[in-house]
Amino acid sequence: MARASSKKPPVLLPPDPMPARVDPCLAMLVDKPPKGPDWAFEVKWDGYRLAVHIEPGRVRVITRGGYDWTTRFPTIADDARRLAVKTAILDGEAVVLDDKGRSDFGMLQRAPGRLPSAVEAGAIVLYAFDLLYLDGRDLRRLPQRERRRLLEPLVAGREGAVRLSEEVQADGDEFLRVACAHGLEGIIAKHRERPYRSGRNDSWRKITCTRRDSFVIVGFEPSVMPGAIGRLLLAARKGDELVYVGGCGTGWSRQESVKLRGLLEEIVTNSPAVSLRRKNAVFTEPALIAEVEYRTWTDDGKLRHPSFKGIREREDDATVFDLASLEA
Q1: Measured between alpha carbons, how far is residue 9 from residues 6, 12, 27, 39, 266 in Å?
Q2: Which fold has domain 25-208?
Q3: Secondary structure of residue 199 in the 3-state scheme
């Protein structure tokens, strides 16, 4: 007579609920790359931070600020449907590459946005660098190396609109030197043993060749050239207020300057968003955000050597620079 098996059936754990939204992990700005085998390095992409939610019957593309921009990135949503998953949340950056393979934010923001461009929306690529949820399992508690192990087979080697952001096996200082020499914005370092933590923390660190942040456009000064812009007037957040942080007068072509002035003239206001008196200033509603590259801050809280890199709509203003970070 056969003996009954004493082996107990495996316990099936209930699936983790899929988050409707995950606040992204944000890299802390540091001066030098960290040392040691616990750190992984990637290129710092210059684009829109997005979370791609793959759900039964639909795909959602969510911005850093929590807005649903699926209709702005249709090729990313369509390609994500082809991934071999039932449910997943990818964390990544949407970019457009220039002819040297570098991400170009100016080209990207013209692709789905209001400024005309020869760039087609289909040229936009999502470089996925983290996997937060997969087929009923919340992965955020896992270390970065394990999340990466699960991400790679899903997107590695793909040539579509969803691709893998490669890790670079190199010394951090040398990688930064090469990245800056090739005109890249900088690099990202990620601690291999830490879980995914929403908000800014030192689990992820960014090291930039120059500083780059987002500022609210609160007005402009006309150029001596008819119909163009001489300087953009910029503001940063301080608590619930906007504070003027200086003007930016470089970084655009004559054609871009004329188009930008046309956008701003649509939102001219007699109620400035900042306390500022400047001769010839034209104040605008704080509806647009400028991406600005700069070297550092002056002692009186103004941007030093700012250069315009692109424009965002204020709808997704989670990236606007907060002056509190200068005091931290």
Answers
A1: 9, 9, 44, 40, 68
A2: D-amino Acid Aminotransferase; Chain A, domain 1 (3.30.470)
A3: strand
Domain boundaries, the chain: 25-208, 211-327
Residues in the chain: 328
Q: Which CATH architecture has domain 211-327?
A: Beta Barrel (2.40)
In terms of Cα–Cα distance, which of 42, 76, 33, 243 is closest to 148?
Answer: 42
The amino acid occupying position 36 is: G
Q: Are 112 and 72 contacting, i.e. CB atoms less than 8 angstroms apart? A: yes
pLDDT, one tens digit per residue, over 172-223 is: 999 999 998 888 889 999 999 999 999 999 999 999 888 889 999 999 999 9
Catalytic residues: 44
pLDDT for the residue 31: 86
State the Cα angle at 234 between 274 and 31, rounded to 5°. Answer: 125
User: How confident is the model over 214-272, as pLDDT tens digits?
Assistant: 999 999 999 988 899 999 999 999 988 999 999 999 999 999 999 999 999 999 999 99
What 3-state DSSP class applies to 254?
helix
Burial of 74 (0-12, 13-18, 19+ CB in 10 A): middle
Q: Per residue in 183-199, is it b (16+ CB within 10 Å) or e — as a string?
A: ebbbbbbbbbebebeee
CB-based contacts of 3, cutoff 8 Å, min separation 6: none
**What is the C-alpha separation between 154 and 129, in angstroms, rounded?**
11
Residue 202: partners with Cβ closer than 8 Å, 6 or more residues away: 28, 30, 191
Spatial distance between the Cα atoms of 300 and 178, rounded to a whole number of angstroms: 34
The Cα–Cα gap between 159 and 311 comes to 28
Nearest 5 degrees, angle CA 260-CA 223-CA 253?
A: 50
Q: How far apart, in Å, do the first and last CA atoms of the chain sit?
A: 75
Q: For residue 135, which of 80, 86, 83 has the smallest C-alpha distance?
A: 86
Handedness of CA 264, 270, 276, 281 (dihedral sign): positive
